[in-house]
Amino acid sequence: MMSDPLEHQSYPQSDTGVPCEFCRIIADQASAKVAYQDDFVIVIHNRLRWVPVMLLVIPKKHLSQEQMWQDPVIAKVADVAVQMGKAHCPRGFRLLSNFGHDGMQSQAHGHLHVLGGISMGRYV
To answer: What pTM does this model have?
Structure first.
């Protein structure tokens, strides 16, 4: 039986002190296709391909999703997300932030999704 490609899949979280997957990417200990980075933010192409453009805008400082929205870095994350959306999806894009299991959050490290490259209708 094939699994639903939209099925929520959580990445394993280590309780042994091993850095999260995004921290490993930021530390260049795990591979990712990087679209942009500066001192505060990294943008990578998501491995998931639900729509043609799926970018993850990630603060380099490890913050939970809630902490990211309460930290001054959110202004930089948002600015970079809009720049990436305009560059990769000139006809329009969507920014998305998932909170908790029911919100389909699969990474503990805060981040924004830039989605686009196709008309997505009213909702994805």
So the answer is: 0.82
